[in-house]
Write a structure and sequence with these properties.
mainly alpha, Serine Threonine Protein Phosphatase 5, Tetratricopeptide repeat, flat
Length: 344
């Protein structure tokens, strides 16, 4: 039986409701499964930047520190003096003179200026500008500091004496050497001054007259120490005369028996006069008196044996040196030298 119109209408309504429920449920489930949208997170505030304080770091080895350059007008005198020394090594004479002149002008200390004045004076002497060099060298000699009175004082004296000689001022040359001789600070310096004065007299043709004066002084006063010291040098090295040298040396030791320089001069006089027995005896005494010079005197004694022809004594002496053990290496060298001079 055909379905009535009312039933067909009701069936259509049921189908629509079922479809709505079916598809609507799926959508609802999908919506339930989907994550809920997240709310935007608040942006974090940027960190506050604080200045980092770090300790100063030294420049790595081999690198220069990043410091401003020192202006030339603020450089100390020592900078120019050191630069001048480098210029001297490379024969940059003009540049060296400029540097030492700058150092001399900047430093106010008299002792430091003495060193710069000496270097500057030497450069002017090289240029033969003697008139400008003279006051500088005289100032240097006058103001040599105590700490440099050894080498610098000697160099100043020698340079100034040479300049006086170049300028033909013999009185100043002799006065300088006499003052040097009379300086009691060092006997070795006084002996050097005597030698330099005698050499100057020899160059100037005045040596014979000086020797005559000293010999005349000894005739008037046999213990004239200065005359004996000057004649001792003349007869030992400048105008060798073994017998006169020995007589003078013996007199000096008689006057000053404890003086080491006089004793050594007497030893040289014995050798020069070929009086080897006396020389050997004197060396033995000096070795006991001056133990700090034992090695030097031992060397001298060994060759005295050789020169005097005492071959067996020399061999025994060499053997005694070897027997002292390896710690006496210097004396082993003496022993070897003796053996090389002896036959067989």
């Amino acid at each position: 039986m055909p379905m009535s119109q009312t039933l067909r209408r009701q069936a259509g309504v049921v189908v629509c409701v079922a479809a709505t429920l079916l598809f609507g449920g799926k959508a609802t489930a999908a919506e339930a499964r989907a994550p809920e949208p997240k709310a935007p997170e608040p942006k974090a505030a940027p960190p506050v930047r604080r200045p980092v304080v770090r300790p100063p770091v030294a420049a790595p080895m081999g690198e220069l520190p990043d410091v401003p350059e020192t202006p030339a007008e603020k450089l100390p005198a020592q900078f120019f003096a050191a630069t001048g020394q480098v210029c001297l090594q490379y024969a940059q004479w003009t540049k060296a003179e400029e540097c030492f002149r700058e150092a001399y002008g900047r430093d106010k200390d008299a002792g430091a200026r003495a060193d710069y004045a000496f270097s500057l004076g030497q450069l002017l002497v090289r240029k033969k500008d003697y008139d400008k060099a003279l006051p500088l060298l005289e100032e240097a000699l006058k103001n040599v500091p105590e700490a440099s009175r050894g080498i610098l004082m000697r160099r100043c004296r020698l340079a100034l004496a040479a300049l006086y000689e170049k300028m033909n001022q013999p009185e100043k040359v002799e006065a300088l050497y006499q003052g040097w001789i009379n300086d009691p600070s060092s006997p070795m310096e006084a002996e050097m001054a005597r030698r330099e004065l005698l050499r100057y007299w020899q160059r100037a043709g005045k040596l014979d007259a000086a020797v005559a004066r000293y010999e005349a002084a000894l005739k008037e006063k046999a213990d004239d120490k200065q005359a004996l010291e000057m004649l001792g040098l003349v007869y030992t090295s400048i105008k060798p005369d073994p017998q006169k040298s020995l007589a003078v040396a013996e007199k000096l030791v008689e006057l000053q028996p404890q003086d080491r320089a006089a004793a050594m001069q007497l030893l040289s006089a014995y050798e020069q006069a070929a009086q080897y027995d006396k020389a050997i005896a004197l060396v033995s005494k000096l070795t006991e008196r001056y133990p700090d010079a034992a090695d030097t005197l031992t060397f001298r004694l060994a060759y005295l044996y050789v020169r005097s022809g005492q071959k067996e004594k020399a061999k025994e002496f060499a053997a005694s040196m070897l027997a002292k053990g390896p710690e006496m290496s210097q004396r082993h060298g003496v022993a070897a030298g003796i053996c090389s001079l002896l036959p067989g």
